[in-house]
Amino acid sequence: MSISVILMQLGKGMIVTAEIFFLTLLFSLPLGLVIAFGRMAKNSVVSLLCKIYISIMRGTPLMLQLIVVYFAPFYVLGLKIPNYRFPAIIIAFALNYAAYFAEIYRSGIESMPIGQYEAAEVLGYNKGQTFFKIILPQVIKRILPPITNETITLVKDTSLAFVLAHAEMFTLAKQIAAKETSIMPLMIAGVFYYIFNLIVASAMERLEKALNYYR
Amino acid sequence: MEEQVLLTINHMSKSFDSEEVIKDISLSVKRGEVVSIIGPSGSGKSTLLRCATMLEKMDRGDLIYLGEPAAWEEGGKCVYAPKAKLREIHKNFGLVFQNFNLFPHYSVMKNIIDAPMTVEKISKAEATERAEKLLAQLGLSDKADAYPYQLSGGQQQRVSIARALALQPKILFFDEPTSALDPELTGEVLKVIKELAKEHMTMIIVTHEMQFARELSDRIIFMEQGIIQAEGTPEEIFHSDNERVREFIGKFQA
What per-residue confidence (pLDDT) applies to B43? Predict the structure, then answer.
């Protein structure tokens, strides 16, 4: 089997991998912010629940979480959800990554000097205006390096979706490798992940540079 | 025109944990008055300012701006007015911080126009016009597009004064406005405050600059251990019979 044929067959998997990547970011970045707020909430019940959530999500394997999210509706509730495989993958990834992002947001928010809040308060900004206009933009600049790290990990973690036998990049590469008894498809998959991450890293670097207009 | 009282503080007390840092302080400030608060570190000057600007909640006492109570005592506890009312009352005063607290991600211009646009909902054109006047007045016209990190400490403090003035407060509080500055940069900030005094801006200034307080103030308050130890015109304070006042001022004139 020639490289171009392998590439053709892997092509669809690449698209699915990219889908998992972007959808996970789309849902986990805002969800992480909500969880970070919960974690920092004055209400101790809310704060504790968020702390436990983060602890479980970070303390158990993502692969296990994928399996649980996929099979729990049927085993626990007896529900058969049609076409649930892909949504289950996105839900599991988003829930898992939101926990990591929540802690990154929290570290950024808590590192902001109190003076910024006080200045905004005295100028008459309300809480929402203070957060979205004054605090969050500065937090984003501070947390970009750890966010980049997580994002790069996510690109590679998408391969875990193979446990649910979804036809993403890694699953396909393994199948083709087994069928053709060739290491080539796996090598190509590796190159794909690497290039994907090069693009992610350089995009994030650009973003960091763009935010360097102030200190 | 009758002299209008802008700020009244009655029997203010404030404790942190079990330590009482403000003990039953009463004070009122009339329109156009410049009041300096001096005293040793830990005397409660900054806490008084932070309670007056509602950055800290006082434990007991009344806080009244232009006859509108922001907080009052009820059943031995201090009750604050509802949020909407406080928002209105907030518009009466501005505060200049010791370490500026400019918004680093905003240009000088944006630092000044953002609050009027966000809080007062005035148009960008109007806010910009106001800001340009202030920048010219404070000698910062060429810095409108700069970012705070590109400015010296003295320039940053002048921007923060402009930011506070852009909301057209009736009273401007200063919390040790020159304490974070090199001595050579202190002068330019003090000059700006003196200009404001000439325009009869009502100001309450916590400061360690004795000579400045003496030249500028209508009234000086000497605080120590959470109480007002002495209060009077600069001449009265600088020639006070009070032993502690003499000792404190003496240290600065050495």
Answer: 92
What's the distance, CA B69 to chain centroid? 19
Q: How far is A208 from chain B (nearest CA, A)?
A: 14
At residue B178, the pLDDT reads 93
Give the pLDDT mean for B67-73.
94
In order of their start, the domains of chain A are 3-213 (1.10.3720.10)
Q: What is the DSSP letter of A212?
A: G
**pLDDT given at position A1:** 66
Q: Between the CA of residue A160 and those of A62, A154, A156, B123, what are the distances in Å?
A: 8, 10, 8, 52
Reading the block at residue B207, the tokens are: 């400061």
Per residue in A113-162, pLDDT tens? 999 999 999 999 999 999 999 999 999 999 999 999 999 999 999 999 98
Q: What is the DSSP letter of B220?
A: E
What is the rounded CA–CA span in Å between residue B104 and residue B151? Answer: 11
Q: What is the pLDDT of residues B154-169, one digit of tens each?
A: 999 999 999 999 999 9
Interface touch B102/A119, C-beta < 8 Å: yes
For an interface test with B, the pick among A123, A140, A141 (most B C-beta atoms closer than 10 Å) comes out as A123
Interface pTM, i.e. ipTM = 0.93
Side by side, the strands of the sheet bearing B93-96 are B93-96, B171-175, B202-206, B34-38, B219-224, B227-232
Exposed, middle or buried, A5 (CB in 10 Å: 0-12/13-18/19+)? Answer: exposed
> Who contacts A9 (Cβ-Cβ below 8 Å, separation ≥6)?
A172, A176, A185
Do A141 and B147 make contact, defined as CB atoms within 8 angstroms? no
- How many residues belong to chain B? 254
Binding-site residues on chain B for chain A (CB distance < 8 A)? 53, 55, 87, 90-91, 94-95, 97, 99, 101-105, 114-115, 118-120, 147-149, 163-164, 167
How buried is residue B45: exposed, middle or buried, by Cβ count under 10 Å (0-12/13-18/19+)?
buried
